[in-house]
Structure prediction request, 674 residues.
Amino acid sequence: MQTQELRQVAPAAETNTGDQAFLKLKGITKRYGVDYMAVDDLDIDVPKGKLLGLLGPSGCGKTTTLRMIAGLLDITRGKITIDGDDISHKPPHKRDIGLVFQNYALFPHMTVAQNVAFGLEMRGVGRTEARDRVEEALEMVRLPGYGDRKPKEMSGGQQQRVALARALVIRPRLLLLDEPLSNLDAKLRDDMRIEIREIQQRLQITTVFVTHDQVEALTMCDLVGVMHKGKLAQLGTPEDIYERPADLFVADFVGRTNILDGEIEALDRVRIGASVYPCNTRGLTSGKAKAAIRPHRISLTPSRDRSLVSMATNAAQGKVTRVTYIGDVVQYDIDIGGNTLTTEVHTASAGHSFQSGEKLLCEWKPQDMQVFAQGSGN
Amino acid sequence: MAAITSSVPIAEAPARRKTFPFLLIALLLPMAIINFVAFVLPVIRLGMISFIESRSGGVLTNNYTLENYVDFFTDSFSFELVSNSLILGFGVTLITLCCAYPIALFLHRVSPKWRNMLFVITVSPLLVSSVVRTYGWMVILGDQGVINGILMSSGVIDSPLRLTNNTLGVFVGMVEVLIPYMALSLIAGFGRLENVYEEAAASLGANSWTRFRRVILPLTAPGIALGCLLCFVLSISSFITPKLLGGGRVFLLATEIYDQAVIQLEWPTAAAISVIVLIIFGLALAVYSRVVKRFD
Prediction:
């Protein structure tokens, strides 16, 4: 029950930019067997030209959702419309949707040009026009002149770009990307992320992007839908998702976070261990709670008199129990009397480093501590 | 660092290469010897016999001649044999392909949970000798057989249909005998076919027929080529099924070789026809390798 309440409190729907919805998912549901809900009553609107990221752990239903939009899976219930056109029960080849698969799925028996031309051929585009559009599409993905190669002669990143060209050359109403970067190595993934986003914005093509990688979701997308156990946990801008998570699952899944057990004492007051901290309790006034604080939102100073600390910030005395050097940041695990806080300090800005066993003061702003009712999002 | 790491494989490689061929040769040698003694030598001997002057009573002379081949190519019956065999070979292969392809495609797509069991069922006819299966077809197709019995007792026909002792009977028997081989070869050659290619084609606007023609068929071409080669060779070289279900009325190269060698004792003639069959197989193999290269 509390979960439901929290979802309604979360500013999910309002975060749409107000444009007319172009892709509309209305109550779409996929049930397997008698009672396994792979996707449960999903409502999402995507405005024209926007990039929606579906983010979640494996098995959350994000790929199932994508496959239902593509028409590769039947929907059990609900309605899918593109620009007012009901495609809920159209076969995939009549949907006019570009699809890019995780493993590229380039036809191995065709050359790159034949692959890209396939969709044009299906649409009866004339040979000369098709040749021009194929070359244009290959130029767009920075592979001009690669038309005569076979897919197996190309690297993973190149194959992925061909797959993108093949999906876009037909000028689809909608582009679907199914974990397009997960088979690439880290460096290439960063480049492709920027490239895909650039092409998407240049063409102003409405896109749904499925990923389990929160960095991809936050950096590339206009809207992020976090999915959990077949349901939409939160839909909002990347900033909404990160700064104002709707429930404990979103807070925990997106970005690193400390989760502390506590109890709500009063409105905007939570007790953790022996201390009571001001925070945002979202209207709750009592009950067991979990408090979430991002590691990098906690500032560390050498231990000093508690009375000097401004009343506007939360503070806790603690002792460093572990120091982990990561490179761009140093992680300090700090015992604050029963609870351990993980904190991060940027190495460049660190005036000095702390040692294990050192006494420190941890400070954070009340609005950086998100409090959720016990059991929310699980 | 780079120099050190790159020098390691160079140092190791020759050592590895030295031991490698020994093991390779040791493992290949037994089969190579068997192949040489049981295949290469007999084929050479067969070729030699095919040039020996024919004498009645199975006597082999020391006179070499082209007569056996000249006789074969000037006898109009030979052309009947060749054309019958080729028609049977192509016909049986095509029908077998059409019967086995859907089975193989289904087995390729079915969930792994069922695949093994269904696969075993598909190839289980191989557990029964083709002679026994051919006798089974004689029981089913014969004049007093199951099919004619049912049709006559139900009054559909008055006299039995000729289902056996003719080409029809041979076709039915051969197709049934060869389906497991065809299905096995098809599945072996379906490795490149993945569901995702069909999905990609569908998303690009291809309907199910186009998906079959443009994606499934080319990707399964290696399997089709392998299965067709195997079935073509097996159907041309088989003589038990044609002999039993053809009732001595269907004349093929294989049955003629048997007759010449075992009944007429004309070994040189039988050898010459065998060499011609081998040449046909060689041509089939050449076509196969071209097809495989084309679709690779």
